[in-house]
Records
---
Amino acid sequence: MTTREGYRFDSAYLIARDALLAERTPDGYWVGELSTSALSTAVAVIALYLVDAEKHHAIITGGLRWLSENQNADGGWGDTVKSFSNISTSMLCRATFAIAKAENEFAPTVQRLEAYLDATCGRSPAERAEAIRNRYGKDRTFSVPILMTCALAELVPWREVPRLPFALACLPQSWYRFLGFPVVSYALPALIAIGQCVHHHRPTWNPVLASQSLAKSPSLKVLRRIQPSSGGYLEATPLTAFVTMSLASIGKKDHEVAREGVRFLVDSVRPDGSWPIDTNLSIWVTTLSVNALAAAGDLDALSEKEKLLTWLLGQQTKERHPYTGADPGAWGWSHHPGSVPDCDDTPGALMAARSLDPAGDLGDILRGLRWVCGLQNRDGGWPTFCRGWGKLPFDRSGADLTAHALRAFQAAWGDAQQVRFATDPPMEHRFLHTISAAAVPSGLDYLRDHQRPDGSWLPLWFGNQHAADDINPVYGTARVLAAYRDWRRKNSEECQNGVSFLLNVQNTDGGWGGANDCPSSVEETAVAVEVLLDLAPGPQVERGVLWLIEAVESGRFREPSPIGFYFAKLWYFEKLYPLIFTVAALGRARVTSSRGAGSV
């Protein structure tokens, strides 16, 4: 490259890197900022209104005003201010104005919303209820809470709200994965609270269904036992608000669970009157940031690495999780108590810890590896939270999760001979070899079997609203190919097909969107470029690098896109994603350029 081009390249990387480093907290880790959510705001307002409308009047008014000011042009709402309108969020907003008795005050807003709903899903309550059920299929994790809220607002009759078997929560936790719950593993609080709400408002003469009344008190004890100290289940406004409004609607607004839920909601409201989808993704964005700097070969730019490592290892779980039953030794997405250990954050934390201290004591790492190994499903893949809960999509194995687990194994084993073991080296080595002999080949087999005919893989927790069915094969394929790269399987048929897919869906502007013909975004361009620099360096990838350089120079690298899924296709964007991914991609370009792998 010319001297001027080299200057632009280095300058762009340093701008992105310094912007990312500037986002660190005084304690050395990253917190980020999740997008504000119309859905979260709607259900939080409802919960606070049903508990004590007078006491929370100012917060309720602020939430209603925010919703009115952020209505989409078509009359609906999406999950974020950048999202297309959808029926779920729009129906919840409709319920909010009804329950809060604000339909007259915000009449123009409600009129535009009704026009959107009429055009999208019909005018009758039955049509609207059916549209909500159709959006989620067999998974009732989100459809039942939405329908329950609409029933509380008298927008649909209670007969449209499916019952939930809340009594099952009283059975031993070890039985849960065999019971065929109609909700996903992390939704136990919703099963209990919403199940009781529907049972209360939809009485039955069926003796079997009526017998659930015997489980009211015991299941509420379970609900309280699994509530985190912050009051927020999963640190999530929607789940906590659904639980709180359910209890308030059946005369239990003074129950300790409801009081703690209200405390969480009041503590979580933002200055503009809105709520985010979750408190934060502090562990996730911290490990992504560390791993991005590691990919760039620039960890020396990270000050106080030992302090950061101490913080990260301090977030490793020490006890069995109260309702997913996850063993200790893992990481969740946030350092707040409502976070749940999972198989995306745990591999990320393991990789970051090894990068921060490659020759350190492997004890904490091995505990994490044991946890990951124990979560592997019989199909060879890895799920998010719980092994064996394979009935519903968000509990099944995922290609992106599986690839992340495989990368964590490789990161831990790459320097195995240089590791300082605290105890019993032979046992530790036998453990490593046992996993190597079974878990990794099975995981690679899973990836081979779940590659799509076009060479792509789909991620579980990311999507793209511009793509058919909201899929994001670019993100999924890039993340899976990183595992093939790390395990030196560049020449495998699966890897070659994945590379061909990414190259074939590059946009004419040099960037990538979530799928073919989707608008280019910083996040998707960066993840594609980062992995292709190692697997297929050449002119096409150079165009992607140039796209990112121009994004940095124009400031667009700070503009996040709503590509994240937060449970049940609930969209979000994270302020740090474009910064992190840009640092990883441009930093990787510097590494490959210096070793002669490419001309950028």
---
Amino acid sequence: MNSKLYIVILLLFISMLALLIADSFYHNYTDEPEDSDVIIVLGGGDQGRMDKAAELYQAGYADTVIMTPIGDRFSGEELKSIGRHYGIDESDIIVEEESDSTYTNAEESIKIMEEEGFDSALVVTNDYHTKRSRLAFDRVNDSDKTFIFINAMNLSGERWYERENSGTIWLNEFVKTWGYRFGLYNWFG
């Protein structure tokens, strides 16, 4: 190959890499909330997710809240207690206790939706986690459920890039999102 072809290939590679990296910094995929059958609060992050879910619940967007765990960090009763603390009636809380990753959060939440006859959900997670959450729910959903993704700031009201650990957040989500895009859910949480 001649040097001009090498330069063209190199420029194409650099351009693609730049686009991939630029895309990885954009995590603000939030939808406008709509009336739904249920609110799903994904485990992880800080309680900013719970605060946002309670805000949506109290505004009447849904009458039921599914709370998902992050590993064994909180028991079902502790999750219900957190929900009550934020003003959600205990009778309106469903605790999903089986999942251990974003992908299994999607699987288990959809199972609950099917059992309860729910067709639509507001999925609440942190701004940095929305892209990967959307990937997981899109992969698991058999197209008969509607998911609306709502970003939650942390309890201090900061976006992911305003936080002290923004570099770590970016790197973790970059790796995990690409892992999810390649179907490697078991290795990337």
---
Amino acid sequence: MLGYAVRRLGLGVAIVTTAMAILFIMIFLVPGDPASVALGPRATPEMVEALRVRMGLDRPVWEQFWNFYASAVRGDLGTEALSGRPVADVVLEQLPYTLALIVSGISWAVALGIPLGALAAVQRGSLADRIVGVLSVAVIAVPSFVVAIYALLIFAVWLRWLPAIGAGEPGDFADQLTHLLLPSLAVGLGWVGYIARMVRASMLEALQASHIRTARAFGLPERLITYSYALRIAILPTLTLLGIGVGHMLSSAVFAEIVFARPGIGKLVYDAIIVRNYPVVTGAVLVTTVFFVMVNVAADILVGALDPRVRSELGR
């Protein structure tokens, strides 16, 4: 298991390095000068050139990438060009809002997806199974930004049940929670369908396993077999799926934070791209990429620790 964890961590480092290299190449290919955009049209050529040197834009792109990566390993994500604030401070200020949004989105997916998937598996071929199948495909097909817009219109504008924008008053948990409901629904609704389909398929497979047939032969109650044994096995693959889902939810968070005017990493990156504040872009993308990789590594290790079948494969 230790060797497997080390291999997964090594793969994670390679993924982060590759993602950041692609980001730097994309930044290099985007037309326009970030220093000119930052200073505005009234800036003199000397001022622009001084800011370019300060931002490191006068160096080759490979050298910019190497300097950033070497500093990031030491915990230094650079500084904002104009304000001089450490990028790490700027990113960490916004990170809790996005983490709360992701956790809430996962809560929607798990709380609705697992029961629906189990219901569809237990009643395979029934009307309930077909309804869950149609609903799963429907919520997967609808983009998160469409869910965000219509949730805002229906629940905040027309019905006035929930607040439309913002993250709530600091220190007021109830107010923050009500401001979180609609954005988290927009982020997590599509994954209700993914989780439901995964649980249904995994549970149908688990119900045909030999130890389940043995439990039936011993006369154990069907409800106990279904929900204590089969469902427990069926939930394990959803851990890996949720690890992948975190990356999708991070991208969906950009739309949710913009539509609902929430603070967060997504809105921070969007605003930074508009003004070509590339130190913030690279720092925020690095933090979210590392978070995504660590969640996936943790999910894989957890599945390996909990599932005897995976442990036996790793032990070979």
